[in-house]
Write a structure and sequence with these properties.
By secondary structure, the protein is α+β, with helices and mostly antiparallel strands. The chain is built from 7 helices and 10 strands. The strands form 3 sheets. Strands 1-10-3-6-5 form a 5-stranded antiparallel sheet. Strands 2-9-4 form a 3-stranded antiparallel sheet. Strand 7 and strand 8 form a beta hairpin. The longest helix is centred in the last third of the chain and has 38 residues. The relative contact order is 0.22.
């Protein structure tokens, strides 16, 4: 068979059907796309790519989790006067009050008042905080910070109950529980980081499986072709 292959290259014009079959044999001349692949290497490669796909999906979930953590849940919204129920587990860092972004912040703050169930709540201006965050600009209508109030305390005990925030001559107001929002943001960020770590681990495992698949491939038989002149054979009379 080796002589036939050599002769095929020696005089291309005299190729026989045997020459054509040898030259077109993909196993001999490495024409296959996966030369040397076996069942083990194919399975490992498929699993490796599958794990890479799973890692990509986990990354998408991590991004969605982070985005959800940055959304705001209003303690009260689009009302005036505004009633906020303070519980022992809420309002630890007070509440931020918002009004429509086209309002005059100083005028609104001058008209604000907070009525506590007992004692006096502490009210302070936030007109100096002009930071525009996504949840503020995407709200309908867009809002801005105008004030912050802390619940009343009886000694070291926070006074729970309904607090009424009113503003004479102002439009609707919104409020957020600062402690709750910080807790949700931190929790969401840690959840996102955890998912990213999981995605990286899955991706590394998939890469290792692909490397193992390469090691499991069997070496294919190589044919060395030597261009040697073909000796003329006299045809029988």
């Amino acid at each position: 068979q080796a002589a036939v292959v050599q002769g095929c290259f020696a005089q291309p014009g005299l190729r026989s059907p045997a020459c054509a079959s040898k030259l077109q044999d993909p196993l001999r001349f490495g024409a296959m796309g996966c030369d040397g692949c076996n069942t083990t290497s194919k399975v490992l490669t498929c699993v490796g790519f599958l794990m890479a796909t799973v890692a990509a999906i986990v990354v998408v979930i991590a991004n969605v989790t982070a985005a959800a953590a940055l959304t705001v849940e209003w303690a009260a919204e689009n009302v005036n006067p505004m009633t906020i129920t303070v519980k022992p587990e809420t309002g630890g860092l007070g509440y931020t009050i918002y009004v429509a972004a086209d309002s005059d912040c100083d005028d609104v703050y001058g008209s604000l008042s907070v009525a506590a169930p007992e004692g006096s709540a502490t009210l302070s201006s936030r007109c100096w905080d002009t930071t525009e965050q996504t949840y503020m600009t995407e709200n309908d209508p867009p809002v801005m910070k105008v004030a912050h109030f802390s619940p009343a305390y009886d000694g070291m005990q926070k006074v729970s109950g309904e607090y009424t925030v009113s503003c004479s001559g102002c439009g609707p107001m919104w409020a957020t529980d600062d402690l709750e929002e910080i807790g949700e943001a931190v929790g969401g960020i840690f959840a996102m980081l955890g998912l990213l770590v999981v995605a990286i681990v899955i991706l590394i495992v998939g890469f290792i499986l692909c490397c193992v698949a390469c090691c499991c491939m069997t070496s294919s038989q190589k044919v060395v072709v030597v261009n040697a002149p073909q000796q003329a054979v006299a045809a029988p009379a």
